[in-house]
Specification:
single chain, alpha/beta, 17 helices, three-stranded antiparallel beta sheet, 2 domains, globular, 480 residues, Aspartate Aminotransferase, domain 2, binds pyridoxal-5'-phosphate, seven-stranded mixed beta sheet
Length: 480
């Protein structure tokens, strides 16, 4: 049954609140707000009871799919379970009721939390100093690339190019272009890793930086990372490491130890915050010592037991975000880190990697596996075999919805034909992994025996196949 809109549920005079009587003198609005800003009549809001509202939103939430309902193996996005204690801590009034203009001495706890989180992330990544201001991964990339540009400018020449492997996330070339650089693609070799000969051929003194994703978007660890860093450094370039895939590396590999100059974090991926329609993200950009002067201000500094905001860095990029960043996300990330501790964090990555390899090996006979070595926290299959029966990867993804599993990432990375990118995450039990694997095997069989069944799916969702591009381009949010 279709859920009615709140507007359709509206009934004149019905309401969901009772306000206490006024205990101050009543005053006309026109005394407080200039007349030209006042609306002429009441806005046409739906009139509904609390029961109507709660049932409406509960029903709507059941039409959607989310991590609290089932497995969400959306490669590259790390849709892990978000522990509920994160939500409790970030809603503590001492955090949630703060105002960004409060004097520093009244927000010591918040400053301490941010300072500690910065330090935890430096420890995890091996970087020297870190800013939590960026709002998400892509914003961190922009900030990181601006820092790289500022560094080269300070040395007399911003340079003109940025090297980006063909397995990179699409945000990397976008960030490089946004900072005025021309992207140069570096080919992957047959093992799905950066081809060292191509890198050597393209690296010269016009290259400002290499943007490396490790593990890369094929889910493979760039084992030559030190050699890659050396090649770039020898010719005066810097290395940017896209850390969106750090979920595979916690407590195991620190980019800073390999000589990387900039690393970004996706707090909402690696450190568990609802994302993807579920709330705002959080970023973070960590740098090596020589790039510290360019970090955004204010910096949080600790003297004795007192925390304060320091604006006094002459080479800083300045402020890159309204106030200090998405604070609620920082509280969640801090909670997650403190709950797990160092040992727990390492186990997160170990389990994420084991789960991915288990799923990959269970599926390799049923789908084309382009890269045969063990994967990190995610892996990429190709739908090439199914395409011969007329079933495309898009159809496999839609059919999975009928089996109660969210679809994996599809058609990314671009270098794998009919790609299916699967990231189970550490949150999934053996049973839920098996459920996913069985669904994928069933679909592979259906693609053989009854291709049109798969092509017509999904059958069990509130809506079937939508015009996805059209829905984004022709937004229609008017009340009907
Ligand atoms: C998710 C992701 C990004 C972008 O991060 P957002 O937080 O979505 O802006 C960049 N690079 C990689 C490899 C990613 O997986």
């Amino acid at each position: 049954m279709r859920e009615k809109s709140l507007r359709q549920l509206s009934s004149p005079g019905r309401r969901g609140h009772i306000l206490p009587g006024l205990d101050v003198p009543e005053m006309g609005l026109e005394k407080l707000i200039p007349g030209q800003h006042l609306r002429r009549g009441a806005p046409p809001l739906p009139e509904v009871s609390e029961v109507d509202v709660v049932r409406h939103f509960t029903n709507v939430s059941r039409m959607n799919y989310h991590v609290d309902r089932g497995m969400y193996p959306l490669g590259s996005c790390t849709m892990k379970y978000n522990p509920k204690i994160n939500e409790e801590t970030c809603r503590l009034p001492g955090f949630s009721a703060l105002h960004p203009y409060q004097p520093e001495e009244t927000v010591q706890g918040a400053l301490q939390l941010m300072w500690e989180l910065e330090n935890f992330l430096c420890e995890i990544s091996g970087m020297r100093e870190l800013s939590l201001q960026p709002a998400a991964g892509a914003h961190s990339e922009l900030v990181g690339m601006l820092i790289i540009r500022a560094y080269h400018e300070k040395n007399g020449n911003p340079r003109s190019k940025v090297l980006i492997p063909d397995s990179a996330h699409g945000t990397n070339p976008a960030s490089s272009a946004s900072t005025g650089y021309t992207s140069v693609e570096i080919k992957s070799n047959r093992k799905g890793l950066v081809d060292i000969d191509s890198l050597n051929a393209e690296m010269n003194d016009e290259v400002a930086a290499l943007m490396l994703t490790n593990p890369n978007t094929l889910g493979l660890f760039e084992t030559d990372v030190r050699q890659i860093v050396n090649i770039v450094h020898e010719r005066g370039g810097l290395v940017y490491l896209d850390g969106a895939n750090l979920n595979a590396l916690l407590g195991i590999f620190r980019p800073g130890d390999a000589g990387v100059d900039v690393v970004h974090f996706n707090l909402h991926k690696t450190f568990s915050t609802p994302h993807g329609g579920g709330g705002p993200g959080g970023g973070g950009v960590g740098v090596s010592e020589r790039l510290s002067p360019f970090l955004p201000v204010p910096r949080i500094v600790k003297t004795g037991d007192v925390f304060r905001l320091d604006h006094g860095r002459p080479d800083s990029l300045g402020n890159v975000q309204a106030f200090w960043g998405n604070f609620g996300v920082m509280v969640r990330a801090w909670t997650y880190l403190r709950m797990l501790g160092a040992r727990g964090l390492r186990r997160v990555s170990e389990n994420a990697v084991i789960n991915a390899n288990y799923a990959m090996r269970s599926l390799q006979e049923h789908y084309e596996l382009p890269f045969k070595q063990n994967c990190m926290h995610e892996f990429v299959l190709s739908g090439d075999r199914q395409v011969k029966r007329g079933v495309r990867t898009r159809d496999i993804a839609k059919r999975l919805l009928d089996y109660g599993v969210h679809a994996p990432t599809v058609y990314f990375p671009l270098i794998v034909h009919e790609a299916l990118m699967i990231e189970p995450t550490e949150s999934e039990s053996r049973e839920s992994l098996d459920q996913f694997i069985e669904a994928m095997i069933s679909i592979a069989r259906e693609a053989e025996s009854d291709p049109s069944l798969v092509k017509g799916s999904p059958y069990s969702t509130p809506v079937g196949r939508l015009d996805e591009a059209g829905a984004a381009r022709n937004l229609d949010v008017r009340w009907k």
